[in-house]
Amino acid sequence: LARNGNKPAVLLCDRGLMDGSAYISEMLWKNVLQKFGYNNVMLRDERYDLIFYLVTAADGAEAHYTLENNMTRTEGLVAAKELDTKLQHAWIGHPHLHIFDNSTDFEGKMRRIINAASLALGLPTTKRSARKFKLKGPPDWNSLNVKHETFDVTKVYLRGSLMRPDSRAESMVDVRSESAGKLEASERVLYSFVRRRTTGHKSSYNKTTMIELNEVIDGKIKTRTFERKLIMTSRQYNDAIVMADPDRNQLLQKRTSFLHEGSYLTVVEYMNVKPGLCILRVQESKDDEDAFNMPSFLDVEQEVGNVKEYSAYYLSVLGRS
Fold first, then answer.
1. What is the pTM of this model?
2. Measuring CA to CA, which residue among 303, 304, 305 is closest to residue 294?
């Protein structure tokens, strides 16, 4: 339906396939995957562009948790919270996981969801992107009782991106109204990259394009940027890297993702460019950013979200490593 509608569409799935892993043992889940020829990367990363997880009312909005409106729901408060934690953990490792807790009322929860969806779709929103912090180094994961997923990542910037750090790409698309060809919006491709994420012998692939959009709103031109993401096949990825930007390094990273108090965190270690550089990305889904508590096992130097020298795009330029 989404493909045949000839209009931009969002396909919503209530209950993703990874939810099943929360209801059975890890060994039984692995046996099921092996029997049908699947793996977690296929069911989690290759199938869904974005994961929105709404925390049960049993955790933070207990007064609104009830069994009366759902005949299949049998868990009390304690069991519901335990199951909800397992369901959240089932999605750790997906590149775009958002957890929506009950720190606000229901209307506030819906507002946070709409803002996050708008950001992902390139629509106007007041929500900021992920926060970034420089760490003194990665934690010792083996000594921590924290469920996490680790991936080896190869990030390749493509030709046709900004060839120089401060230049502009020439690719532009005009969007005009039917009346007299009046200009309503124009898109400019700033840069794009493809990424391979590998765990064990299983890989997933995606492409990200950074877009600059100029819109005419109330007679004034407004400019904003957004990302356009696409899940790729291995063949599409291999075709794309032929167009790798010769003025930039491929970036090799180790990324470890985990959940902490309702926020999705990823520790990014740079392996070939600025080896030893360690950046923490925090994907929050709360209105109050000050409510975020940094995990005690992370050694933070400073927040670097607005420091271009710590952006992957800046670090990829040849000669900066």
1. 0.82
2. 303
